[in-house]
Amino acid sequence: MRRALSFALVDNDDGSMEEPPHPRPRLRRLGEEAIIVEFAPALTDAANRAALAFRAAVEAAAWEGVAETSVTLKSALVRFDPDRLPHAQIEARLSDLLAARDWQAAELPAGRTLWRIPAAFGGAAGPQLAEVADLVGASEAALLDELAAHRLRVLTIGFAPGQPYLGRLPLRWDIPRQTGLTPRVPRGAVVAAIRQIVLFTVEAQTGWRQIGLSAFQGFRPRAGRPFPLSVGDEVAFEPVTAEALARWQARASEGELAARSEAIA
Fold first, then answer.
1. Fold of the domain spanning 10-105
2. CATH topology of domain 113-263
3. pLDDT tens digits in sequence order for the chain, 265 residues long
4. Residue by residue, what is the 3-state secondary structure of the chain?
């Protein structure tokens, strides 16, 4: 039996985190047709990078019988056909692949995209910006400068179709969720909690605090590619005025993505 290792997070002066060595990855069966490869007990940057890189390696291996792969915040999931790829065989292959390299130090997969997404913050677009600034311990202007300076990775996609969890922000952004729920935030809402940003793709309730609003459509069911964002992509928010947001919303209503994109070298 593998021994679980504990680890601590070290807060640096600049608000970043040092992440000491993680436990060894673990394989867990999920029903009869899936295996989860977990890289850490909780989200860390290294665990997410490892999950992204490992999933890409499984995809590149193109093993017969693998039906689907996906990524969570800290793990990779492999779904397979047990009639074509027995449990013992897929587990042996995954174990061999895990042993082939240090996945915590792996490079992020190639073919990723940087999305520059205009968004308005504060006021009607971000009714809880002042509350978040107070929790973070910064002025609203400083908070937005810090957010705009960060390229946030798409850590995982979930909760709603195409909806990205983006991170991670500096340690002081580690604010809790609300104790209650906001009954409704609109599509395109930019919400914050636990060092992450979620960009809502549908109208929904949430326990996260809304600080901004974009016109970006992360779920376009009639498009050839319904989910524009992929795990591992990066997002940079560009603060704009409410008037500029309205123009972006008009363009989005005509089918535009309301964002600019470029390949990450």
1. Gyrase A; domain 2 (3.30.1360)
2. Cyclophilin (2.40.100)
3. 222 322 233 333 344 444 545 678 999 999 999 999 999 999 999 999 999 999 999 999 999 999 999 999 999 999 999 999 999 999 999 999 999 999 999 999 899 999 999 999 999 999 999 999 999 999 999 999 999 999 999 999 999 999 999 999 999 999 999 999 999 999 999 999 999 999 999 999 999 999 999 999 999 998 889 999 999 999 999 999 999 999 999 999 988 889 999 999 7
4. CCCCCCCCCEECCCCCEECCCCCCCEEEECCCCEEEEECCCCCCHHHHHHHHHHHHHHHHHCCCCEEEEEECCCEEEEEECCCCCCHHHHHHHHHHHHHCCCHHHCCCCCCCEEEEEEEEECCCCCCCHHHHHHHHCCCHHHHHHHHHHCCEEEEEECCCCCCEEEECCCHHHCCCCCCCCEEEECCCEEEEECCEEEECCCCEEECCEEEEEECCCCCCCCCCCCCCCCCCCEEEEEECCHHHHHHHHHHHHCCCCCCEEEECC
